[in-house]
Amino acid sequence: MKVRRIVANVETTDPSRAKVFYQDILGLEVLMDHGWISTYGSDQPMAVQISFATEGGAGTAVPGLSIEVDDVDEAFVAMSGAGFTIVYGPTDELWGVRRFYVRDPFGTLVNIVSHKTQ
Fold it and tell me: What confidence category does residue 3 fall into, taking pLDDT thresholds of 50, 70 and 90?
């Protein structure tokens, strides 16, 4: 048996509220929309990972989602400009990433992260 896909499910009374955060700012596509469930994603190949943590690093809370982007600062400006609550950062971490935490429209703590290039 092989894992084919991992999907994060966020409970909400209004899935359409995901559009600005996940589609407009992060650029994910609507892959499925049945009204009661909307699935956002990309046709780009991505690594499948699931993490288990006692903290989020640097003494922060464990985020519900981590989303790697190519430009953390651009994402930060867009999230801030759209009025989303920034909880932490942006900051360069000792383990080689630049990141910030933001609350999505449903209150989920999201780690927006890029690996720093050498």
Answer: confident
Of 56, 54, 30, the C-alpha closest to 42 is 30
For the chain, the domains span 15-43+56-115
| Nearest partner of 17 among 117, 105, 118, judged by Cα | 105
> Which is it for strands 97-103 and 109-115: parallel, antiparallel or unpaired?
antiparallel
Measure CA of the first residue to CA of the last residue in the chain; give whole Å.
37
Cβ–Cβ under 8 Å, residues 86 and 100: yes
Query: Could you tell me the pTM of the whole model?
Result: 0.93
The CA distance from 111 to 103, in Å, is 9
Dist CA 100 CA 69 (whole Å): 11
Fold designation for 15-43+56-115 = 2,3-Dihydroxybiphenyl 1,2-Dioxygenase; domain 1 (3.10.180)
The proportion of the chain whose per-residue pLDDT surpasses 90, expressed as a percent, equals 89
